[in-house]
Backbone:
């Protein structure tokens, strides 16, 4: 697929998965450039690393190498690119080699020992913990992550210590992309209903995870979260359920993380004296799954201990932006009802009797439509709520599916809808205790102005 083609153009290069691949090919000596609709911290970083990025959907600013030599190029794109894109239509009409991001990720990792993390929630945290553990090991690896790891300061990292080469990837269920991978080991964190615009039903989504798990030949190379994953063979794990084949025994936990051991279903000690530097039971469960897979793949217990302890988190995953005695501000990527439940309940557990104000930006019209009642239930559990308009991403509006419609279903006296531009001024009128910004769209653009006002 990649033979004799050294020029790579990414349509949607600012995406988190796309940018990791762009960094990989740039480090391998390919001529890499790409287009994205708007600039962002990721595109700024790519430009600093020597990758050309364009923000106009036309040919005028694209390097002539791509226009004049299509047989020397291949195009990488994501399903999120609209069909109306001029560049996509130009490449299609002129017979460029076109490949989805997932195909290319499968191609560049097919000859490695692949550790792949799947699941509708927890993929990025779990895969980043795996990378942190491997950093402390004597193993060679490349990591392609769905978030910016604080340890790596990137979503792509390579460590070369000789010997067999491992790869760490996120197995994305959207558009059944994960079926392009060739996993050797896998953690499956959850199979909750999501992307029903693609799958049609929860059962179809679960079937796709079974199909993914069948790509792995050895049963004991598959680790799945008990009670959150259905119909998957392999080894079960849990943060709390002692009926799982492996589970955590918690010694203490606070806002800095959790001290724990991993035991098997008979109660026997498997790995002791562990500390994961992330709060929340959901993050403890991610750590257990990551530790089990890493140990099976050959990482030492010491690498696991240090990797968990030294893990610094990921941008927008339970990220403490401001941490003072009188005010906490936490930013999180939560965009599914179960993710909202996890973050809100974790904050409640850590800070009982404190007032939580949340700003939530729904992501996708279809997801909001499919889970409106569930969103309403979880958002009713905060003390104050600001709803932003739905972030459309790749979608067109759906009649009747709005944040105002969601607001009508929320049982809360202090809930309001407003535009993103109004938020900071509104916050200035409130007495805040704990503030959460939640969502997978562009709500992260609020982090800096909120920090500047309260920091």
Residues:
């Amino acid at each position: 697929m990649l033979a004799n083609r050294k020029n790579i153009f990414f349509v949607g290069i600012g995406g988190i998965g796309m940018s990791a691949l762009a960094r990989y090919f740039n480090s391998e000596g390919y001529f890499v450039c790409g287009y994205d609709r708007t600039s962002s911290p990721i595109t700024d970083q790519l430009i600093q690393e020597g990758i050309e990025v364009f923000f106009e959907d036309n040919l005028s600013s694209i390097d002539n190498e791509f226009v004049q030599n299509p047989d020397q190029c291949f195009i990488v794109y994501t399903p999120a690119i609209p069909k109306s894109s001029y560049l996509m239509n130009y490449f299609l009409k002129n017979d460029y080699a076109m490949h989805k991001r997932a195909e290319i990720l499968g191609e560049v990792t097919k000859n490695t020992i692949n550790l792949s993390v799947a699941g509708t929630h927890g993929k990025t945290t779990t895969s980043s913990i795996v990378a942190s553990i491997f950093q402390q090991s004597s193993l060679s690896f490349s990591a392609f992550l769905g978030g910016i790891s604080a340890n790596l300061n990137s979503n792509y990292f390579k460590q070369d210590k000789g010997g067999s080469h491992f790869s760490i990837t996120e197995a994305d269920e959207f558009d059944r992309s994960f079926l392009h991978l060739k996993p050797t080991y896998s953690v499956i964190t959850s199979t909750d209903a999501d992307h029903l615009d693609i799958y049609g039903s929860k059962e179809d989504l679960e079937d796709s995870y079974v199909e993914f798990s069948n790509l792995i030949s050895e049963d004991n190379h598959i680790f799945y979260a008990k009670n959150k994953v259905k119909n998957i063979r392999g080894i079960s794990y849990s943060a709390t359920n002692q009926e799982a084949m492996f589970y955590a025994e918690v010694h203490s936990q606070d806002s800095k993380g959790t001290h724990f051991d991993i035991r098997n279903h008979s109660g026997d000690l498997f790995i002791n004296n562990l500390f994961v530097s992330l709060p929340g039971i959901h993050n403890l469960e991610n750590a257990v799954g990551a530790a089990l897979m890493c140990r099976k793949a050959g990482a030492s217990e010491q690498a696991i201990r240090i990797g968990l302890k030294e893990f610094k988190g990921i941008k927008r995953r339970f990220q403490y932006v401001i941490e003072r005695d009188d005010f906490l501000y936490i930013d999180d990527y939560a965009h599914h009802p179960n993710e909202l439940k996890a973050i809100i309940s974790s904050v409640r557990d850590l800070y009982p009797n404190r007032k939580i104000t949340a700003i939530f930006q729904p992501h996708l019209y279809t997801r909001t439509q499919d889970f409106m009642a569930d969103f309403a239930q979880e958002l009713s559990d905060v003390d104050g709520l600001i709803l932003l308009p739905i972030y459309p991403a790749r979608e067109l509006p759906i009649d009747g599916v709005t944040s105002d419609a969601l607001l009508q279903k929320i049982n809360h006296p202090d809930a309001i809808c407003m535009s993103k531009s109004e938020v900071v001024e509104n916050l200035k009128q409130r007495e805040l205790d704990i503030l959460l910004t939640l969502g997978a769209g562009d709500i992260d653009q609020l982090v800096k102005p909120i920090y500047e006002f309260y920091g």
User: Anything to note?
Assistant: Residues 319-454 form a domain with the Protein-Tyrosine Phosphatase; Chain A fold (CATH 3.90.190.20). The first strand starts at residue 7 and ends at 11. The mean pLDDT is 91. The radius of gyration is 22 Å.
